[in-house]
Write a structure and sequence with these properties.
The complex is a heterodimer. By secondary structure, chain A is of the alpha+beta class. Chain A has two helices and four strands. Chain A has a single domain, classed as Ribosomal Protein S5, domain 2, CATH 3.30.230.10. In chain B, the strands form five sheets. A ten-stranded mixed β-sheet of chain B has the order 1-10-9-6-2-3-4-5-25-26. Classes of the chains: A alpha+beta, B alpha/beta. The interface between A and B is medium-sized, with 15 and 14 residues.
Chain lengths: 91, 468
C-alpha cells in the first residue's frame, strides 16, 4: 500500500538524495536533512531544498531528505520531481 | 621426540608466559574472516591480563570485540598498518588513551627487525601445520595463500604460537614459515572464514566513472615510456585499479610484451595475466581472493614473499624498489600531491598506509587513480586531513576529468602532452571540482591526538586528531 499523501523522488545510492514531501501543519515548511556530508554541505543542502520549495510556491509541508553526497543540480532535480508529484497528489 | 602441540589456547597463553604489559602480534591474511585475534584476546581477558600492546598488521570489522578489551584495559596500545570498521570508528573518537601507531607494510618489518618494536608473543594464523611445526598458508580449510606479513614476527618474536585448524601427519612439501621459528602449536575449530578472506567484489566494475579513470590511466601508462618488456607492476584491488589492469592486459597482448613481475595483494586478474604469459612471475605478500590462493599453491612462478622482501626499507633491496608503475587510491590528494588514505574527510579513520607509501617510494611512476568528486567531496584539497604518502613520491593523479602531473616530473608531463592526454595542473583540477561540487565547509577537530603516522623509514610525518 503506497502512502497517498506524501511524494518522494531520488534513491539512497551514492551521489544521490532521497527526498520525501509530506503535508505539514501549515505555516513554514519544515526541512530535515541527514547527510554523509553534513559537516561540509549541511546548510547548503537545506538552502537548496528551501529554494526549490519557494521556486515552486510550495509552503507548509514537511521535507525529509536522506543525502548520499548529491550535487546541487541533483538535489534540485529530485526536489522538482517530488514537488510535482506532491502537487499532483494534492490537486 | 619433541611435541609442540598444546591442548588449548588457555594452556598456550600460560606456556608462553603471557603477562601484563606484553606486546603480542598478529598478521592479517585472514582479513575480515579472522578468528584468531578475537580468540586470543578473549582468553587473555579471561586470564585477567592487562595493558597489552597489540601489534596487528591490520584490524578489520570482524575485530569489533577489541573495543571491549580496550575499555576493560586488556589492550591499551595499538600498532597497526590499517584499520577499518567499528574499532577504527571508536579509535577515531578517542577510545584509546595512547595514540595508535600507524605504520606501513614496509615500516612494520623495519621496526621489528631494528628492535624498536619488540614482540613477546607472535600468533600465526596457520592454515596447515605439520608434525614438526612447519606452517603452510596454502593448504587447509582456511587456506589464505601467502603468510608474508607474519614472517618478520615469526623470526623476531621471543615466542611464536602457530594457531591452526588443520594438523597433518605428513611433512609439508612447501613451507611458508619453518618449524625452527615455531615454539608452540595450538588447535582451534576454525582459524578463519575463507569467505572473509576475499577482498570485496572480485567482479569487474561497471561504474562508468571508474572505467573512465581506468582508460585515462591506461593511456598514461602507455605514454610514460615505461611499458616495455620487463615492465614491473603493482595495483590495488579497487575498481578503477583493477579495470586499468585489464586495459593494460589488452595493450600488452597487442604490443606483444612480456612483463617482469606483478606485486602486492594478488587477485584473479593478476593471476590470469601470469597464466597468459604476460608476466614472468608474481611476488605475493597477500592473496586477495581464492584464485590467488589456488595459484600460489600450484604455480612455481607465483612466489610467496615476506613483508621485508616486499617493502622494507631496511633490506638491501625490496620488491617495491623495482616497480615501474604502481596504481594507488586516495581518500584525498592535496595540491602538493600528498595523499591521505588514513581518514575520510570527516576525520574518521578508514584505513591506513598498508603498502601505499612503500610502493609510492619505490615505483618509477606512482599513479593515484581517484574520482575527481566522491559523494560531493572534491578529491583534491588544499591540505590533506592526514598525510599517508608524501607528495615527493607521487607522480601522477588520474581522474575521470583529467590528469595532473607532479611539477617535479616535467618529463612525464611532456610525454603525456605529446600523447595528447588531457593534462591539467592539480590546482586546475581542484578548481574544476569546486565549481561542480561547491566549496565544502572545513571540518573542525579537537586537540585530542588519536593516532601517529610513521613513514616507512621511521620518521613521524603526521598525527590524527579526533573530529569535533
Amino acid at each position: 500500500m503506497g502512502n497517498t499523501t506524501q511524494a518522494s523522488a531520488g534513491t539512497l545510492e551514492s551521489n544521490d538524495i532521497l527526498v520525501v514531501i509530506a503535508p505539514g501543519n501549515g505555516g513554514e515548511a519544515t526541512v530535515s536533512v541527514e547527510s554523509i556530508v553534513m559537516k561540509q554541505f549541511g546548510p547548503a543542502i537545506i538552502a537548496t531544498i528551501q529554494a526549490s520549495l519557494a521556486e515552486h510556491g510550495l509552503g507548509g509541508v514537511t521535507v525529509t531528505a536522506q543525502d548520499k553526497g548529491a550535487l546541487d543540480c541533483t538535489i534540485k532535480a529530485r526536489m522538482e520531481a517530488a514537488i510535482l508529484r506532491y502537487k499532483e497528489l494534492h490537486s | 621426540m619433541r611435541d609442540k602441540l598444546l591442548p588449548d589456547m588457555a594452556t598456550a597463553l600460560r606456556e608462553a608466559g603471557l603477562a601484563d604489559g606484553m606486546t603480542i602480534s598478529f598478521h592479517h591474511h585472514m582479513r575480515n574472516g579472522d578468528h584468531v585475534l578475537n580468540a586470543v584476546l578473549a582468553e587473555a581477558a579471561k586470564q585477567g591480563v592487562k595493558n597489552l600492546t597489540l601489534l596487528s598488521s591490520s584490524i578489520f570489522p570482524v575485530h569489533a570485540p577489541l573495543i571491549e578489551h580496550i575499555k576493560n584495559g586488556v589492550v591499551t596500545e595499538l600498532d597497526t598498518n590499517y584499520m577499518s570498521g567499528p574499532v577504527a570508528a571508536a579509535v577515531s573518537r578517542g577510545l584509546l588513551e595512547k595514540p595508535v601507531m600507524f605504520r606501513s607494510h614496509g615500516g612494520r618489518p623495519r621496526a621489528i627487525r631494528e628492535g624498536s618494536r619488540v614482540i613477546d608473543i607472535a600468533f600465526v594464523a596457520a592454515p596447515t601445520v605439520d608434525p614438526m611445526g612447519n606452517i603452510s598458508g596454502s593448504l587447509g580449510p582456511a587456506a589464505c595463500g601467502s603468510l608474508g606479513y607474519a614472517v618478520p614476527d615469526a623470526e623476531c618474536a621471543k615466542t611464536v604460537i602457530a594457531v591452526t585448524d588443520n594438523l597433518i601427519d605428513t611433512t609439508l612439501e612447501s613451507v611458508s614459515i619453518p618449524h625452527d621459528r615455531v615454539t608452540h602449536v595450538v588447535k582451534m575449530d576454525s582459524i578463519g572464514d575463507p569467505k572473509g578472506i576475499v577482498s570485496g567484489s572480485t567482479s569487474m566494475t561497471r561504474d562508468p566513472v571508474a572505467l573512465a579513470i581506468a582508460r585515462k590511466a591506461q593511456a598514461a601508462i602507455r605514454a610514460s615510456g615505461l611499458l616495455k618488456d620487463g615492465f614491473n607492476f603493482q595495483t590495488g584491488a579497487g575498481g578503477a585499479s583493477l579495470a586499468t589492469a585489464q586495459y593494460l592486459r589488452e595493450d600488452m597482448i597487442r604490443m606483444k610484451l612480456k612483463g617482469g613481475f606483478l606485486l602486492g595483494g594478488i587477485t584473479k586478474y593478476l593471476v590470469d595475466m601470469l597464466e597468459e604469459g604476460l608476466f614472468d612471475s608474481i611476488y605475493d605478500v597477500q592473496c586477495f581472493d581464492l584464485a590467488a590462493v589456488e595459484s600460489i599453491r600450484k604455480n612455481a612462478a607465483h612466489h610467496e614473499i615476506s613483508a621485508d622482501t616486499y617493502a622494507s626499507p631496511r633490506q638491501k633491496s625490496c620488491c617495491v624498489d623495482f616497480l615501474d608503475t604502481v596504481l594507488l587510491g586516495a581518500s584525498e590528494i592535496d595540491v602538493n600531491f600528498n595523499v591521505n588514505v588514513h581518514t575520510d574527510s570527516n576525520g574518521m579513520i578508514i584505513g591506513g598506509s598498508g603498502g601505499h607509501n612503500d610502493a609510492a617510494a619505490g615505483a618509477a611512476m606512482t599513479i593515484i587513480v581517484a574520482p575527481l568528486i566522491r559523494a560531493r567531496l572534491p578529491i583534491v584539497v588544499d591540505r590533506c586531513t592526514t598525510i599517508t604518502t608524501p607528495g615527493n613520491t607521487v607522480d601522477v593523479l588520474v581522474t575521470e576529468r583529467g590528469i595532473a602531473v607532479n611539477p617535479a616530473r616535467p618529463d612525464l608531463a611532456d610525454r603525456f602532452r605529446d600523447a595528447k592526454l588531457d593534462v591539467y595542473s592539480i590546482e586546475e583540477l581542484r578548481a574544476m571540482a569546486l565549481k561542480i561540487a561547491g566549496e565544502p565547509r572545513k571540518v573542525e577537530f579537537t586537540d585530542r591526538i588519536v593516532g601517529t603516522v610513521e613513514y616507512r623509514d621511521g620518521t613521524i610525518i603526521d598525527s590524527l586528531r579526533a573530529p569535533a
